[in-house]
Amino acid sequence: MALVFDRQREHRLLVLPALFHEANKMRRHTVEVMRRLDLSGIDSFLPDFSGCNESLQPLDTQTLEGWRAGALAAAAYFGASHVLAIRAGCLLAPSALPGWRYAPTTGAKVLRSLLRARMIAAREAGVVENIEDVSVIARAEGVDLAGWPIGSALFAALEDAVANADSRQAAIDQDDIGGGGLWLRAEPGEDAEQADMLAALVAMGMLEP
Amino acid sequence: MTIEPAKEPVVAREPAVQAELGRSAVDSLLRAILSDVLALEADLVAAFSGETGLFGHLPELDSMAVASLFTEMEDRLGIIIEDDDVDGEMLETYGGLLAFAQTKIIIGRTDGGASN
After folding, report:
1. Residue in A124, A76, A122, A121 with CA at minimum distance from that of residue A96
2. Rounded to an integer, what distance in angstroms lies between the CA atom of residue B39 and that of residue A180?
3. Distance of CA A126 to CAs A121, A129, B87, Å?
4. What is the pLDDT of residues A47-64, one digit of tens each?
5. What is the b/e burial string over A107-135, where b = at least 16 CB atoms within 10 angstroms of the residue's CB?
6. Predicted confidence (pLDDT) per residue in A103-130, tens digit
7. Which residues of chain B have pLDDT under 50?
8. How far B39 CA sits from the closest chain A CA (Å)?
9. How many CB atoms lie within 10 A of CB A157?
């Protein structure tokens, strides 16, 4: 499954979404950016990673390598000329594709937030857990983190995952956009000014010769 | 529990931030983080007092939101928050959270930034 704005135009952008809880918080905002790019004459494609969003695959059998292969296949399928990767989506971006990494994060940080959410919820329920012990179990047999069943292979791969430094993508930091990152919000939200800014940065890069 | 520097593309920034942070800088950074997490205007968060209730008072601060808040505090304040640091008291009020952050920064300094 993929959400696309496709009018067979020359400029074609693959959008790789954030992962897990951040995917939910960022989705509407991500599509708002794509809407703006459409108005600027840029086609864009937002695929679901296998096991995520509307994919019918189970999440707990997915791997980082599988997702990377999926991103590569999506780039080929849609004939993408550029990529915009968001947050943990940056870990999956095909390195040969030019484009941008928006507020890239590491796999370790993503897991840390999820592990901590699980630990806090457990403690509220009167069960004392700690991140280190849960991580040991997760590496061996997989783990359910804040509602996401993550297999052992994906967990272990995420622990070391960083965006490819050799990629052809430039980083866009939140400071370049202004305001607070929408992935931080307790409730999903959107921000028209931030969407304008991100779309403008990408459109300028794609449309200029 | 330490984060390997090799995994961090932006480590260069963190020790510098840590060295410079004074009390009022920590206060304003913490308010900025809360403003991002709670999607509140800066002037509303600026009006938080030490007694302003957080966890348990603000329904949007669930466990995932608190986890994101801590991860962001680690990033922007250059601290490491251990599992055992997390208790009801530090999260109950703004004053509690600020005192916790300031203590962590002082500990980080006396450790000579060993956690980095």
Report:
1. A76
2. 8
3. 9, 9, 12
4. 999 999 999 999 999 999
5. bbbbbbbbbbbbbbbebeeeeebbbeebb
6. 999 999 999 999 999 999 998 889 999 9
7. 1-16, 18, 113-116
8. 6
9. 18
Dihedral angle computed from the Cα positions of residues B19, A88, A99 and A6, in that order, rounded to the nearest 10 degrees: -150
Tell me whether strands A99-102 and A169-172 are parallel, antiparallel or unpaired: parallel
ipTM: 0.82
Spell out the alpha helix ranges (H) of chain B. Answer: 13-20, 23-38, 42-46, 63-77, 88-92, 94-110
Task: Write the burial class of residue A76 (CB in 10 Å: 0-12 exposed, 13-18 middle, 19+ buried).
Answer: exposed
pTM listed for this prediction: 0.87
What DSSP state is assigned to residue A18? -
In terms of CA atoms, which chain A residue is nearest residue B86?
Answer: A120
**Which residues of chain B are at the A interface, by a Cβ-Cβ cutoff of 8 Å?**
1, 3-4, 7-9, 32-33, 35-39, 60-72, 75, 83-84, 86
Q: Give the C-alpha distances (Å, rounded to integers) separating B23 from A22, A30, A31.
A: 31, 37, 40
CA distance A40 to A11: 10
